[in-house]
């Protein structure tokens, strides 16, 4: 019933903001157009003076956090959207309608167990920014430090549960009604997203993510991560250092202070690849509302990141295969790309590598007709995965978040510096990472990491060696007993076979004797009787043991 109510609300919102007009220009099948024509509201509700972008933004805001996050991701793709849509969806990044500041203050006091006046020297009830899951208030600690206080939206968990339940329903329908549904594993993808979105509702997890990335980039000239105040952080309240910077999407203000935009864009790509390949721990919600640029040194700009509710991670195997895929692709080594997909288990091991290579080449070769700076990393990854799906590649949930983040980073980089050559920026990093991973330094680093474990086990080596030798001796004894038992069993079977053979020989002799009694001349003239006689004698002689 809850899912039906949620579906009915979605239909009402679509009708209210006339989102059906987005489909009018698409090349749809005739029966889809027929169904659209049957929608009664098309004839009752006027489109009005609002632009398409404004109507879509208002609809996403009304539908709640999951839909808002979808709009946030779309807002970074200026190459896929019209200017009107991109500018309107950009407002979803930090301009979602707030809830009451007084109510936020009550939630803070309930969580931290003290009045706001005792916790902070100053507290602003007017929110600084309001996002899909939480909103942020400015405050001042008694030691003079400026902080921000993040508070989870009240009742948001119920809304998310309804939306996730609806997504599960749709995923099950896709699996049942679409031939390719089971291979794409939509239920597993929704389950992975459910974990991600509910992790955002626990601000202690976000604080832990922030602390980890802060350690990873400690004293980094290209990325600054604010400090967490753990004594003032709870499940639905987070207090962190307040930062002062320029929103990364405010290109006019960045240009006004003579920011090196080329360097800024390249450093964004470097940060992404560093998090993915060096740390295997990356900020996976890097839309422009969560990224700022420091004002301190425009010629060597430094990013400032906030909102660490969604992070991603890859296994060492996935890191290696992904890096080698990128390198092989830009070297046009399509055989290597195909083989890597098979070796990684992303496609079945019995896949025809030659056919797979040909399919990849047919998709990728047209891309190289463009300058390298115009090649989209995100679209390359999507193209590879779409081609692989024709060869029964299952959806890899661990790569979905990475692909989304890569699209965000790429859209942001091209917005800052349209001539950004992602390959020129990424190639040296990937090649250096592969060398460090597989070269002598990697061997030394692995030995260094394992040395404490080896030293811990060294005193026990004599006992372990004795036990291993004892187990080998026991294994030899067991094998000897097994071989002896097998030999005895074979002898018994042989004796049983001989016994049966002797009885057969005796039976043959008895039959031959019967023929002789009945007709003494038969043994001399009749072939069957002679056969019985000599067969019986041979059986008795050969099986006498």
Automatic annotation (TrEMBL):
One of its GO terms (cellular component) is plasma membrane. Pathway: Cofactor biosynthesis; ubiquinone biosynthesis [regulation]. It comes from the Bacteria. ATP binds at residues 128-136, 150. InterPro entries: ABC1_dom, Kinase-like_dom_sf, Prot_kinase_dom, UbiB, UbiB_bact, UbiB_kinase. CDD domains: UbiB. The keyword NADP does not apply. GO terms for molecular function: ATP binding; protein kinase activity. Residues 122-430 form the Protein kinase domain. Keywords: ATP-binding, Cell inner membrane, Cell membrane, Kinase, Membrane, Nucleotide-binding, Transferase, Transmembrane, Transmembrane helix, Ubiquinone, Ubiquinone biosynthesis. Belongs to the ABC1 family. UbiB subfamily. Belongs to the protein kinase superfamily. ADCK protein kinase family. Is probably a protein kinase regulator of UbiI activity which is involved in aerobic coenzyme Q (ubiquinone) biosynthesis. This is Probable protein kinase UbiB. It comes from Amphritea balenae. The lineage of its organism: Bacteria, Pseudomonadati, Pseudomonadota, Gammaproteobacteria, Oceanospirillales.
